[in-house]
Amino acid sequence: MIDKRLRVVLAEDSVVLRDGMVELLGARGCEVVAATGTAPELLAAVAAHRPDVAVVDIRMPPTHTDEGIRAAVDIRARTPEVGILVFSQHVETVWASRLLADGTAGVGYLLKERVARTSEFVDALRRVADGGTALDPAVVTQLLRGGQRHKVDALTPREYEVLELMAQGHSNRSIATLFAVSERAVEKHVAAVFAKFGLRATDTDNRRVKAVLTYLAESGS
After folding, report:
1. What domains sit in the chain, N to C, each tagged with a CATH number?
2. What residues does the Response regulatory domain cover (predicted)?
3. Dist CA 37 CA 57 (whole Å)
4. Which residue, among 135, 134, 116, 113, has the nearest Cα to 125 in the 3D structure?
5. Who has the most CB within 10 Å: 29, 31, 81, 108?
6. Global pTM?
7. Residue 1: per-residue pLDDT
8. What is the mean pLDDT of residues 31-53?
9. Which residues contact 143 (CB under 8 A, 6 or more apart)?
């Protein structure tokens, strides 16, 4: 049962698909506050309406290459409180990595042909709007570029719990509060996860994102 009317901005260049999604989301208790067909219109709609979540296709006019996901990255930088659900037929790894650079909380990436039920899509939409994550395993696999699986098997139970909470968008401070331990203790667990996953610090350090992506890939989330 929908207990909160979700406010959505929809960006889809196919008029038929866009109109169908507006009708579908309305029937599922969501309010589509704007439905757009170009990236500039998407940016303007998000700025004007400040929705709970924006649904974004990757390829939009005029070049039909990566306008949509570039706009999504821009939205995340300008209004991080707005959830982003990329909904596309394609995986664009470069810009997807940039979209996830500050963490996976409030971000989703689903492939159109792999969503079997309307309820799955709406559930993912609400999860992203609530600050959660909804990443198709096929997307995660491509982002990881075929990295080794089952790395989580090397983690201790507490390290696994910490990683699971990281995947839910919790900060070290938040995890420390949940476990009633010091933030320093959590930092040690996070460092252990990085070490066991072979994630070394770099100039553009995004080890936290890579650790979460590995967790999602191996858990099938």
Report:
1. 6-144 (3.40.50.2300), 151-219 (1.10.10.10)
2. 7-127
3. 9
4. 134
5. 108
6. 0.67
7. 38
8. 97
9. 91, 93, 96, 97, 100, 213
